[in-house]
Design goal:
This protein has 98 residues and is α/β, with parallel strands linked by helices. It has one domain. It has 2 helices and 6 strands; from the N terminus they run E-E-E-H-E-H-E-E. The strands form 2 sheets. The protein has a 4-stranded mixed β-sheet with strand order 1-2-3-5. The protein starts with a strand and ends in a 5-residue tail after the last strand.
């Protein structure tokens, strides 16, 4: 059984631009992200689907515009919600590592 928790990322105007998702599987927390280009309209169903599909990515790279405080808040929220579980991957802000 998988448990999941998600949080929408909003731009400076309060419009949804992406979604962060934490999925617990086999005793580990996995994170998935989906972000929308500024010129496109964010669709919650599609964004959630993409984040869920991407949660097994071993190295996650987020766009530079994502507020690190939002990421930290979400990770802390996940630790509270899913007590006793650990990370399964590294999370990177900005350009993906090579």
């Amino acid at each position: 059984m998988m448990d999941e928790l998600k949080m929408y990322i909003r731009d400076e105007d309060g419009n949804p631009r992406g979604v962060m998702m934490c999925v617990v599987e086999c005793g580990e927390m996995h994170f998935g992200f989906s972000f929308c280009n500024k010129k496109d309209k964010f669709e919650k169903k599609i964004g959630t689907f993409l984040a869920r599909e991407r949660y097994m990515d071993p190295d996650i790279s987020m766009p530079f515009w994502v507020n690190f405080d939002d990421v930290a808040l979400f990770v802390m929220r996940c630790f509270k919600y899913f007590k006793g579980y650990g990370f399964s991957q590294d999370i990177f802000i900005g350009k993906a590592k090579k």
